[in-house]
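Let us begin with a simple case.
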Amino acid sequence: MNDISISRRMASLRSAVLPIVHLLEQERIVEIMLNPDGCIWVEEAGKGMYRTDIRMSSDDAERMIRLAAAAVHTEVNERHPSLAATLPGWGARLQASVPPIVSSPVFALRKPPVVVFRLDDYVDAGIMTAEQAAYLEGCVYARRNVLVGGGTGSGKTTLTNALLAVVAATGDRVYIVEDNPELQCRAENMVNVLVHPPFYTHQHAVMDAMRFRPDRIIVGEVRDGAALDMLKAWNTGHPGGIATIHANHTSAMLDRMAQLCQEVMPSAPRYLIAEAVDVCVHISRNDRSSAGRIVTGIAEVKGLGDGGEWLLEQRFGQGIPELCCIGGP
């Protein structure tokens, strides 16, 4: 595509997003959502989610979605009514749907972080304690494999960026896999790979990582059968990895990892999971916290019990440290 075509497409896209362009350019706005009724909702740092007085027509929304789809060489229509892409020009992660699966075009835009918070910032904000921060920093320097879990919008990526700030200081060669450029790492020796399913999947990227001679393999969000390849890589000469996963608590993070592995094999490799993952960190939304989030659990993985249950030592956030046997095959 020539420069003139790209320029025209960007001009068309900017026209389509005109009702929300000022939101895209406000640093404190982290997420922008359009509902079928045309109302725009946002999530603002330090303020939470609320409805704005802005409305967006279905025509503008559909035009924006189609232009974003064209930028990644795909289409959105009745046969393909869902889109996961990056909004050109702003780098925001776009998840969108059009009729017939919804009554009117809808989307959720997640903006990439502008500022990388460090672990000390988490302590200052009351999201974690100084002891927790020191422990996590020590885990990174000790090249332990860390899994960061939480629900949607809990701050998994932002916390991962804080851990990557520590990784950058190690001088290690870093290989990052993600589907949208959200992870921020200032390591001098780094390869950042963006997946584009179905052409290039998470599984392909993780498998390719082995040939790039990485010291650490970082996965923005563990998905599908790539979980198995990542675990194998972490467990065969590439310790010090970090990955995020959707889960409700520390033990559920390992359960979710097992479920993802079962997408490509009949039985979950619980021994491999317990061997490869060293530490589970869980972060949650918390309306009582001024920051809106809090680290709710940090657990060390100690292996498997006789019945195949996870052996976890809860270190912080869940009372007195003790060895817990949780879950079975």
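The second case is a distinct protein. As before, the sequence precedes its structure tokens.
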Amino acid sequence: MGSKRVGNQSIVFQNPPFILAGYNIVGPKEGEGPLKASYDQIMNDTYNGEKSWEKTEAKMLETVLRGAADKAKVTVDSVEFILAGDLLNQIISSSFAARQLGIPFVGLYGACSTMALSTALGAMFIEGGFASQVLCAASSHHDTAERQYRMPTEQGNQRAMYAQWTVTGAGALLLADSGTGPRVTSATLGRVIDLGTTDTNNMGAAMAPAVADTILNHFQDLNREPDYYDLIVTGDLGTVGLQLLKEILKKSNLPMGKNLSDCGIMVFSPKQDTHAGGSGCGCSAVVLSGHILNQINSGELKKVLLIGSGSLHSPTSALQGETIPAIGHAVTIEMI
């Protein structure tokens, strides 16, 4: 068997796994945004019948895992692995959801890059012959994330204008070794990049250099140009981070065209006053499993590059004065 590793950081799948289905659920604020038609479920409130926001997030993740399997018309028991993660300590949303399903579980933490990471690893599981069906998922909840990383939302603290709004949402994809639909054709796994940013409210500035590094390596490894893709979309850089990314790539002699966008910008309308846009593990998860997958299946898009962006700090590291390391993971999804 020949090597599937290409260049510095990329993997090209010889038998690209199929995406049989995607499923998502979002909170009420997200349900008022421009992508509302692409969501499978919109919650009426941020608790959705649970006693705490943490319980709500775990239930959201369980919902999308079951929903993706149901939409693909496969039984949950036939799925061999769950690969999922979230933002909370010990990734409790994912592990608590997985305990309800009884499927072997691989917990992941890539911060907000987790959806891209789980999709890349799920494709590797299938390509390597270790599984025939895998569920890949990620979640976040505005109130659980704010409570852990910043201040409890009940305090009503004023947010910086360059801050982003953590998406309340979860998304899942069911990958399989056979079927019909879009396929995961390649992945570029990122390196940890830290240029010394310390402001935990400015995630876009911290993550943009890492995303740029992954993009540059992706195009070099695969010998492609940006116009190969109908859409190049980052996970949650927001307006500030996306502008920085464009400047970095331009200085690196890889200027981007109109096919570059960001899930954090797409998920909310400027009228919703989220400042720099959306963020969180759930941000790219709900956009990928809904809006983007729908556009691929309808023929509007044929080739998509998703680069998940993750800030790898913790509340403890930030309080101790550490700088913010970040990472970007990329997956190529094509209708072939």
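Residues 38 and 291 are 5 Å apart (CA to CA). The first strand starts at residue 5 and ends at 6.
Keep these points in mind for the review questions at the end of the chapter.
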